[in-house]
Structures are given as structure tokens and as C-alpha cells.
Write a structure and sequence with these properties.
The chain is of the alpha/beta class. The chain has helices spanning 9-13, 24-30, 50-61, 78-87, 91-96, 104-111, 125-128, 132-141, 161-169, 197-207, and strands at 19-21, 33-35, 38-43, 67-71, 97-100, 119-123, 146-151, 153-154, 157-158, 172-177, 180-185, 193-194. A hairpin with a 2-residue loop joins strand 8 (153-154) and strand 9. Helix 3 packs across helix 4 (78-87).
Length: 208
């Protein structure tokens, strides 16, 4: 068996990584210097603001490259159209984001092309129907891309063994409840992101 070459501390401290430099409320939320690859997960129960949050994130991340929003679950329906309109994408943002409805095989074919999306949001993890092995293969096959998975939830945890597995390995974990995004990020940040001020205040005030 051929062993992988070991890396020294000096070598790893001199490595350069492709990063996204977040600012303002997004830096407070996710962190300032965020690596442009790997896996994120957004999860929560229905009706708590996952789609609104994911579209806000997609809109912000257009400044770092091409974004694909793969809406397998909701599709091109009126509710999704309204959610997009609420974000008021600029002309530049519209050019940098693509709405898809593709299964895993077609998504892989798209990502193999030149000028393919840099950031891929998949809605949802349950609807794309992949295995843990396929998940690992996808991340390894496209090591320079950021995959953001949207998942259903059961209580305060992602729904299903695959979603729990993805959450465990994700660099950024975001739980959406009551129009508030509660984050655990390896890049710092840590501040909650309020998706809708009025709805969030109403929800959380009712719990106290």
C-alpha cells in the first residue's frame, strides 16, 4: 500500500486557499474569511423561512461567483416565484444566478462544463435522493465548489440519516426556526440572522 505524503506544519501554514470575504451582517453571521468549497447545510421545519433565507444567501453570494439554485422540491411554482420577487435581485445578481430543476446525474453534467456554477444550493436533500456514498463522491469530484444543502427537520435536527451525516461534516450548519437563522460556522461569525423582523419577533415573543 502506497502511503500519502505527509505534510509538515510549515507546509500547511503556507498553503493558500480560495476564500470569500464576507462583510457586514453576513460576516457577523458566517465569518469574515470563508473557504470557497465544501459543504453547508440549512435545515428547519416547513413555514419557518428556509426558502427566504436561502434566497437571501444566494443573492449575497452572487458577489463571489455563479450561483445555481436547484429547486427540486418546490419547482417553478407561484410560491417560489413570489419568494424570488421579494428578494428584488439586481440586474447583475440576476445574471449570476440560475434556477435549476435537475436530478443528480444532470447536475453533475452541468458542473463538468466550463463556466459552471461555483456555488450550488440544493433544495432539498430529501428530494435529490442521493446516498452517503454519492454525497462523498460529489464533494470530492468538485473540490473547488461550495455545496449548500437544504433539509427538512425533525425538531431541532435534520431529518433522516443522510441529513444528519451531512450536518456532521458540514463547515457551516444553519438551523432555521421562527424566521431566525441560527448558525454554527467553522469560519467564525455566530450571530443569528433575522430573516423577517416582524415574523421573527412575533414567533419568539410568543414562546417567552
Amino acid at each position: 500500500m502506497e502511503l500519502k505524503r505527509a505534510i509538515s506544519i510549515d507546509q500547511i501554514t503556507k498553503m493558500r486557499f480560495t476564500t470569500m470575504n464576507f462583510e457586514g451582517e453576513w460576516a457577523d453571521h458566517v465569518g469574515i474569511e470563508v473557504e470557497k468549497n465544501g459543504s453547508w447545510i440549512i435545515y428547519g421545519e416547513s413555514g419557518h423561512g428556509k426558502t427566504s433565507y436561502s434566497l437571501k444567501l444566494a443573492k449575497y453570494m452572487t458577489r463571489f461567483g455563479r450561483v445555481a439554485y436547484n429547486t427540486l422540491e418546490e419547482g417553478a411554482r407561484l410560491s417560489f416565484q413570489k419568494a424570488i420577487k421579494r428578494q428584488k435581485f439586481s440586474t447583475l445578481e440576476r445574471r449570476r444566478i440560475t434556477i435549476l430543476n435537475e436530478d443528480l446525474d444532470h447536475l453533475i453534467e452541468r458542473l463538468k462544463k466550463q463556466k459552471s456554477p461555483d456555488i450550488i444550493i440544493i433544495d432539498s436533500l430529501q428530494f435529490i435522493g442521493i446516498t452517503k456514498k454519492q454525497y462523498n463522491q460529489l464533494i470530492k469530484r468538485f473540490p473547488s465548489k461550495t455545496f449548500i444543502w437544504i433539509s427538512h427537520a425533525e425538531g431541532k435536527k435534520p431529518l433522516g440519516s443522510l441529513a444528519v451525516y451531512v450536518e456532521y461534516h458540514a463547515d457551516v450548519k444553519i438551523r432555521v426556526e421562527g424566521f431566525k437563522a441560527i448558525i454554527k460556522s467553522r469560519y467564525g461569525g455566530g450571530e443569528d440572522y433575522i430573516i423577517d423582523q416582524a415574523k421573527s419577533a412575533e414567533y419568539w415573543n410568543e414562546l417567552t
